[in-house]
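thread: overnight batch results

M.L. [08:02]
morning all. the overnight job finished for the chain we discussed friday. pasting input first so we're all looking at the same thing
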Amino acid sequence: MKEEKAFTIRGYRASDRAAVRRLCCETGFLGEPIDPIYEDRELFADFLTTYYTDHEPESSFVIEIGGELRGYLLGCRKPLRNQLYSFYQNICLFARALLRYPRYNQRSRRFILWILMNGWREVPAAPRRTPHFHITLLPDARKVSTTRALFSAYFSYLYRHGERRVYGQIVTFESRRGEKMFERYGFKVLNRARITKYESFHPESVYLSTVIKNLETAEPLTDSVHSRS
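M.L. [08:03]
and the structure it wrote out:
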């Protein structure tokens, strides 16, 4: 059997910012590049990553394989600050998108219209004062061992800071990221909503699911190196 490379879980660093933004865009369309849906990678990455990388970097973690960043967990344990930031950020990003709208292609324009007409309707309810996370992994990092190690680093961090619950909002569909997968890591599904923006591009129904977990223990939080099996 071919021996697989070791992976490293560590805290996010400022030097990871460009790689995180690039990975966000390379996986933004159900694990594939976002470009067929929306061409403006700058605004897409701003929306999904800027708060975490620029305003609460201490709550995020990355996974390296062979010395290359192959996934991340962007976390937030200050939800009220995040909500306030998101309110003003959404206004600014919307204004920038409107200025660029005449230069967008037809698919990008449809994406903007979906955000205006349906995006806010298709986000399932989530706890407002509970820490949360976004997780993105490239195919070679989508293993039980790597995912568990990444979650463990973040959960331990939260627990040591007095947090006892955490939630995430995860895109799920039949062939990838089913809700049962998150039950494996101790999450329970609170609710879910069907996402319509992928209907023209993907044959399966796509959902955004809110999953939540009670934190029961904390493991030592250090940079860790693991061998995969």
